[in-house]
Design goal:
It is a single chain. Helix content is 74%, strand content 0%. By secondary structure, the chain is mainly α.
Length: 301
């Protein structure tokens, strides 16, 4: 539990620091990844944010060794409250009433998932068939890349309405969902004895390569999306997609049984359905800025 709360804090702080650094940088794009990396690596503030995210990754490894996947995701998403508070304080971002209701519904959905857990009743699995992992992850990666590309093509339309970043968040969330499953797989290979054999076993699994792919593409895609959109919206959407992906597909892939008790099962299913429904109904566009009043312009000195 302590590691999960620490991961929440580090992830929220890391995203906010990266967003603040990106606001002072020239526009970045996934079509120029080398330039993007050169710009962000030249920003001490961005490096501080990325180090916080890396430390959150380390804390996440500890969590996956001690908690069931669904329980871990429920705790991770509770960090959205801290993220929204930090975004308002450090970035000056404000959420609309509809968005605040949506975030509240997401937190309610994940609370339902947490309440569906019972200490000692949920097993922590460490193994999954590699073929099943690839069957889940490869199509998800393809879907994330396609969705992000579609959002980018619409963003280049000069007459587009300002986007809230929901599509970007879903796309990056799919990549990070795959990354989360890979982290779970890596955690199963961590051991204090037979380190050499464990390392070879890990390298023969798909997990380090999935982490490498999602790490590189997720970094480039998330930075471009963060620069264009509000962190207080895109990160909650990304986090929710990641958590749902990991909780549902991760539980099935790693063979962690669903609750036997009908009430706990209903809470877990209803929480998942509610979170998905909220994502589908969130506003896709920001309000366009109002045009200036000609009378006020003439009256101004």
């Amino acid at each position: 539990m302590a590691a999960a709360l620490l991961a929440n804090t580090l992830y929220s702080l890391g995203f906010v620091l990266e967003k603040r650094a990106l606001t002072s940088l020239p526009e970045v794009t996934i079509r120029q990844p080398a330039r993007l990396l050169r710009l962000v690596l030249g920003s001490p503030l961005w490096i501080g944010g990325s180090l916080a995210l890396a430390a959150g990754f380390a804390a996440q490894l500890v969590v996956y060794r001690t908690l069931p996947i669904a329980a871990a995701q429920g705790i991770f998403v509770s960090g959205l409250v801290l993220l929204v508070l930090l975004s308002a304080r450090l970035l000056g971002e404000e959420t609309t009433g509809r968005e605040r209701y949506a975030l509240g519904a997401i937190l309610l959905a994940l609370l339902m998932v947490v309440l569906s857990l019972r200490e000692g009743a949920d097993s922590v699995s460490q193994e999954a068939p590699y073929s099943l992992i690839l069957l889940v992850c490869v199509p998800s990666l393809a879907a994330g890349l396609w969705l992000y590309g579609s959002a980018e093509r619409r963003a280049r339309n000069r007459h587009r309405r300002p986007t809230t970043g929901v599509e970007y968040g879903v796309a990056v969330g799919l990549l990070y969902g795959v990354s989360s499953l890979a982290i779970k797989g890596v955690s199963s290979h961590l051991t204090t004895s037979g380190i050499g054999g464990a390392a070879l076993d890990l390298l023969s699994s798909p997990y380090p390569y999935l982490l490498l792919f999602t790490g590189v593409f997720g970094l480039v895609m998330s930075q471009a999306a963060l620069q264009r959109c509000r962190a207080s919206l895109i990160v909650p959407v990304c986090t929710t997609v990641t958590s749902l992906f990991t909780a549902v597909l991760g539980t099935l892939s790693f063979g962690e049984a669903l609750p036997d008790d009908p009430l706990r099962l209903a809470l877990r299913v209803a929480g998942t359905v509610l979170a998905v429904a909220v994502l589908l109904t969130m506003p896709k566009h920001d309000s366009a800025p109002e045009p200036p009043n000609p009378a006020e312009e003439l009256a101004s000195p």
